[in-house]
Design a protein that fits this description.
Layout: H1 11-17, H2 20-40, H3 45-65, H4 70-90, H5 98-116, H6 121-129, H7 140-170, H8 173-182, H9 185-202
Length: about 220
């Protein structure tokens, strides 16, 4: 999907760049199916994993029919398979969510490092979509704005970790399944809106915006 410069003038555009609302919602269905399958089957990890795999396959087929790139579909399906294998290997249902917890930890660290080295991921994503490559880094005000807005994304991952880790430690599988849904699209939507607000507020008065980096 080609993203125009105009499309980036709001938080909804960032949602499309990062996979969109549909992608975020679809990603919650296999974990939710695992929780439901595990519970109704008398806490059988195998049947819970089977429910997640079947749901993941249905979601993958639906995504392919809607024109999603096969690579993205395969990555999503492999994630479900990996989560299921971990739970089957350890024999602990809560470990189905361990891969997601590790992913959030790695993402928080990666975004934090990108800010520290002044290559904020938010700038890289927007710059690539706008065809600017890395020209935005030559604009000190825009670089600073992207850096500040990227901090919001670090907090998004940290919030998930603060919720998921205690639930995983306690083995509360039902709560993990529910919060996996609650902390996906709703949290992403809030993160998009707040990061966009921070980005715009961080630009000095008179700055033409992200579409027009001011390069000396």
């Amino acid at each position: 999907m080609r993203v125009s410069a105009h499309d980036l003038e709001g938080p909804d555009s960032l949602a499309r760049l990062l996979g969109g609302r549909a992608g975020a919602i679809d990603a919650t269905l296999p974990p939710l199916a695992f929780g439901v399958g595990w519970l109704v089957s008398g806490r059988s990890i195998g049947l819970g994993v089977l429910a997640a795999l079947v749901t993941g396959a249905i979601v993958a087929g639906w995504r392919l029919r809607r024109g999603t790139r096969p690579r993205a579909v395969l990555i999503g399906l492999l994630g479900v398979c990996g989560a299921g294998l971990i739970a089957m290997y350890t024999g602990r249902a809560q470990d189905f969510f361990l891969l997601q917890i590790l992913s959030n930890g790695a993402s928080a660290l990666a975004w934090l490092v990108s800010i520290a080295v002044r290559w904020p991921f938010l700038g890289l994503i927007a710059g690539a979509a706008l065809g600017q490559k890395t020209r935005w880094r030559k604009d000190p005000a825009l670089l600073r704005a992207y850096n500040r807005a990227s901090v919001v994304w670090v907090f998004q991952y940290l919030i998930r970790l603060l919720v998921f880790v205690p639930l995983w430690w306690l083995g509360w599988v039902e709560a993990l399944a529910v919060t996996r849904v609650a902390l996906t699209w709703p949290l992403i939507a809030a993160c998009l809106a707040i990061s966009w607000w921070v980005l715009r507020r961080s630009l000095p008065p008179g700055h033409p915006g992200i579409r027009h980096p001011q390069i000396d």
